[in-house]
Amino acid sequence: MRLLSWNIHKGIGGRDRRYALGRVIDCIEAENPDLVCLQEVDRLVRRSRFDDQPRLLARALRFHSFFQQNVPVGRGSYGNLVLSRWPVASRHRIALRHGRRKPRGAQLAVVDSPEGLLHLVHTHLGLAERERRWQIERLLGHMLFRSADRLPSLLVGDFNDWRDSLAADMGAGGFRQVTSPPARFRTFPAWLAIGSLDKAFVRGPIDVRHARVVRTSLARTASDHLPLILDFHVRSSHG
Q1: What is the pLDDT of residues 32-53, one digit of tens each?
Q2: Which distant-in-sequence residues (6+ apart) come within 8 Å of 177 by Cβ?
Q3: What pLDDT, on the 0 to 100 scale, is given for residue 237?
Q4: In the chain, what are the helix, strand and coil shares in percent, each to the nearest 5?
Q5: Which of the four pLDDT bands, split at 50, 70 and 90, describes residue 239?
Q6: With contact defined as beta carbons under 8 Å apart, do 54 and 81 qualify?
Q7: What does each C-alpha distance from 119 to 2, 142, 197 come to in angstroms?
Q8: Is 11 within 8 Å of 48 (Cβ atoms)?
Q9: Which of 20, 22, 40, 201 has its C-alpha lying 20 to 30 A from 221's C-alpha?
Q10: pTM here?
Q11: Domain coordinates of the chain in residue numbers?
Q12: Nearest to residue 232, comparing CAs of 199, 200, 187, 184?
């Protein structure tokens, strides 16, 4: 199974500042993922021609979709989007706004994959370290998150964690980081990546066969982040 996680910057190129959602779609299709977790997805916002990006992306990929509105922009909004080749058995949204900072959130989806149920958690954390620590503590302790403790769990997204300081917090929650060492997973800025901001953690019987960053010319152009790819399997409880 393959997962792609990507901050698409509303479909606006990081260097040319040109809105072109087609570049994002082409880049995703080139990687042929089964699960897609996207951050900074616009819905009905002027800067992206008032496109309903969640609908357009789901239609282009022919995937099931699950959108989380986080930040209001005019009469529209932007937020997180999960796209899945397979049905989503359950879905929840958790608000992770800390004080007066920009609204953030996490999506919790139980995906009915060919290898069994998978708890997919997708988030976009804040810019301040104290804020991020609070967000991870709230997420891992939340009743909705804990209700899927028995399932294999995969947590991905834009963590905004320049110093990789959340690895210990995630380890305390039973998660192991698969985007390590950080020097191998630099994703920001796309045209000259120096920051390992996009991360993935797993818990339970999940084998990550390969994790990598997409560094194609198309990916460098389409957003200000590079996409992260995970190839993984969920081990059978029967061996």
Answers
A1: 999 999 999 999 999 999 999 9
A2: 167, 170, 171, 199, 200, 201
A3: 61
A4: 25, 40, 35
A5: very low
A6: yes
A7: 15, 14, 22
A8: yes
A9: 201
A10: 0.97
A11: 2-234
A12: 200
